[in-house]
Amino acid sequence: MSMHIFGHEATEEKAENARLSSFVGALALGDLVKSTLGPKGMNKILQSASSGDINVTNDGATILKSIQLDNAAAKILVNISKVQDDEVGDGTTTVCVLAAELLREAERLIAMKIHPQTIVEGYRVASIAALAALENCSSRSRVGLRVFRVSLKYLTETTWFVPPNSSDPAQFRQDLVNIARTTLSSKVLSQDKNYFANLAVDAVLRLKGSTDLEHIQIIKKVGGKLTDSYLDEGFILDKTIAVNSPKRMENAKILIANTSMDTDKIKIFGARVKVDSTGKLAELERAEREKMKAKVDAIAAHGINCFVNRQLIYNYPESLLAEKGIMVIEHADFEGVERLSLVTGGEIASTFDRPDLVKLGKCDLIEEIIIGEDKLIKFSGVAAGEACTVVLRGSTNQMVDEAERSLHDALSVLSQTVKETRIVLGGGCSEMLMSCAVEEAARKVKGKKAIAAESFSRALRQIPTILADNAGYDSSDLVAKLRAAHYEGQSDAGLDMNQGTIGSMRQLGVTESYKLKRQVVLSASEAAEMIIRVDDILRATPRRREAV
Fold first, then answer.
1. DSSP 545
2. 528, 126 in Cβ contact below 8 A?
3. Which uninterrupted H or E stretch holds 11?
């Protein structure tokens, strides 16, 4: 006699079925994104069901975030790619693909009647060996960097900064450019990767060792071509200066506010007001105007010459402020206000009774500039000297959006590399090194765990295989040659994707951040372990729609 203990329509999948369901979902997701991997990866078009908006991208995290999923294991892969995006900024596709390959191998092992816990133990041994090999092959960036809160040296026009123990600043910069080029080579900017790699390095070097990318503002303007993009010092706000205000202001003292500046609404606590003559109405309006005039006087009492407000400013207060020679910028969207307060060193105020407690922002010059056909406001010489703005141009909205995603990945990886300065070689070289190290470790393992460890090494080899497949090369031939090269002691051998041969990644300058690679292996192996341990999937009763 079977007892029904679950609610109506709640479902349970046990043992083999549960595992199969998990594996199928994760493998499908891995297969979906693996064609976007590497310098020859393909793009995906994502179309929104509700708004019909179109996104064209090959950024793993963006693709995975945008698709609606029903499979629990697939959602775990989406989460690890999100974590990779937040932690390092790049490697989102790699982490998803590696986790999927580990699960593909696990599926084979389970078919061979190897217990999931044995597989997990084998994978654990393998991941420890892989991470140890990765650490051994990582090298300090060749100029012995360290985090540089140091006195600056100025070279040429650009504000580079040089670590105190660096004898060769040009070499230090080249290391960062190589990392940026490797990151950008798999993105839409790959055609102009040298240009954008230099632009990204200049922007990150201005941060002087900080990893706060909020200081780098990215403004997107459609029109022109990608290489019309440029880096500008200071902060650019995508707004225009009010009509009667001065269009240029030196030594600006800026009050940043979030307050209502509209007078022609009678706001007596939202009440309806009955008056018995138009004179009374005029009196009410006069009172409102007086109230606004007092507010403007309170604002001017701060001794400012620029007023930036998050909300709209109506004509009357605008003309009052203009009479006092104060530049007015209204409706600076929330992110703009937040960023502006960050880089000018001011605080966002909403009341104006105590000028002595309000922290004003400062900058050397505020002026109106024109980009394409739009007027924008540029704040030069801001208090946070490291602030800068990247202006991105491109032929379509989709192109500019994808350029922003690509550049963000490069900036994230560079800012992380400035902190954790170790680098490893790209082009499948690190994966093959780890794979060989895992194979060596597997030989010393007794029992069935050894088979699982070998599978881990096979999964790592899939990364160079997919890189070669995406470029249309003969992957089995290339990966076999790459493996042989590593066993012969050529530890910098990787795939030269332009020639379709094995090349020295050190000479080609294909370098990646050690932190990025380490995070990929850690996240992928942990996610795979979690999914392999599943033996039961319980789904709650679907929520009923209320009858209208």
1. P
2. no
3. strand 11-14
Radius of gyration in angstroms for the set of CA atoms belonging to the chain, rounded to a whole number: 29
- Looking at the structure, do residues 322 and 378 belong to the same domain, yes or no? yes
Which residue range is the domain that position 53 belongs to?
Answer: 11-140+424-533
Q: 280-294, pLDDT tens digit by residue? A: 777 877 888 888 888
Together in a domain, 248 and 375: yes
Q: Is the pLDDT of residue 268 over 80?
A: no
Residues 450 and 319 in one domain: no
* Residues 352 and 432 both lie in one domain: no
Using alpha carbons only, what angle is made at residue 213 by residues 45 and 519, rounded to the nearest 5 degrees? 70
Tell me how far apart the alpha carbons of residues 63 and 68 are, in angstroms, rounded to a whole number: 10
Q: What is the mean pLDDT of residues 318-335?
A: 86
Beta strands in 115-160 (DSSP E): 139-140
Are 227 and 275 in contact by the 8 Å Cβ rule? The answer is: no
Residue 458, phi then psi, degrees to nearest 5? -65, -40
pTM of the model: 0.81
The answer to whether residues 132 and 245 belong to one domain is: no
How far apart CA 485 and CA 427 sit, in angstroms, is: 14
Per DSSP, helices labelled H in 275-384 are 278-300, 315-323, 334-344
Cα distance between residue 182 and residue 406, in whole Å: 12
Strands 511-513 and 422-425, bridge-based pairing: antiparallel
DSSP strand pairing (248-257 vs 361-371)? antiparallel
**Cβ neighbours around 232 below 10 Å, total:** 16
Give the HSE-up count for residue 7: Cα atoms under 13 Å, Cβ half-sphere. Answer: 7
Q: Are 95 and 519 in contact (CB under 8 A)?
A: yes
Buried b / exposed e along 95-123 (16+ C-beta atoms within 10 A):
bbbbbbbbbbbbbebbeeebebebbbbbb
